[in-house]
Write a structure and sequence with these properties.
By secondary structure, the protein is mainly alpha-helical. It contains 9 helices and no strands. Helix 2 runs antiparallel to helix 6 and helix 8 packs across helix 9. The chain is elongated and about 65 Å long. The protein starts with 14 loop residues before the first helix and ends in an 11-residue tail after the last helix.
Length: 203
């Protein structure tokens, strides 16, 4: 018997689908997931403080007006890549505005930063922004599962325990441990389908 909470109509849809339906809770969830990544990108593009906050706000305005047009055209196209393109352009716009406002040193610095913004998405050595995003997504779906199911998943996937060790420690059958892992990964993939490819937590 599966005692995990039954999926609602909302959780049977991906987060992206719910956002496209203008679901306010889905928008809040999307912003919460990606805001840290947007601020990281802002800093990489040379924006700090109020300038970074303004860039992030402009990115979300652009996403709100064009999200219905976003579709994955192939396996290489991702929401994250699309979001980076918007962010890069908004960062460039910010530096152009600063360059016009400050004709001396400030303008020179802004132009230098403008020219330094790369075309491809910046990734740090261990892709920690991406890992943090997946961890935040896991916390969002956690209330949908019973404690013992989540504990089994956490031990196997996050802590790297074997199924046998997990089953022994949690007093569960090995098959139940595998099922817990499968259910939560399936739910995670559904939630982030079209947003992230989840290579971090491959089967």
């Amino acid at each position: 018997m599966n005692d995990d909470r039954a999926p609602s109509n909302e959780t049977s849809l991906t987060l992206l689908q719910r956002v496209k339906q203008s679901n306010p809770q889905a928008w809040e969830r999307l912003v919460g997931l990606y805001n840290p990544l947007l601020f990281y990108w802002a800093s990489v593009c040379g924006l700090q403080g109020e300038s970074a906050a303004d860039m992030v706000q402009e990115v979300w305005k652009s996403v709100a007006t064009s999200i219905l047009n976003f579709e994955k055209s192939d396996e290489k196209s991702t929401f994250r890549g699309w979001l980076w393109t918007i962010s890069r352009n908004k960062a460039r716009d910010s530096h152009r505005r600063h360059a016009k406002q400050f004709h001396a040193t400030g303008g020179t610095d802004s132009l230098r930063l403008l020219e330094s913004i790369q075309e491809t998405e910046p990734i740090d050595s261990d892709d920690s922004p991406g890992r943090e995003l997946v961890r935040r997504a896991l916390e969002l779906i956690r209330p949908e599962f019973e404690t013992h199911t989540w504990n089994a998943f956490e031990r196997m996937v996050l802590d790297g325990w074997s199924a046998a060790h997990t089953a022994s420690e949690l007093k569960m059958k090995p098959n139940a441990v595998h099922q817990a892992r499968f259910r939560i990964l399936r739910r995670l993939r559904l939630e982030l389908s079209g947003l992230e490819d989840l290579r971090i937590y491959a089967d």
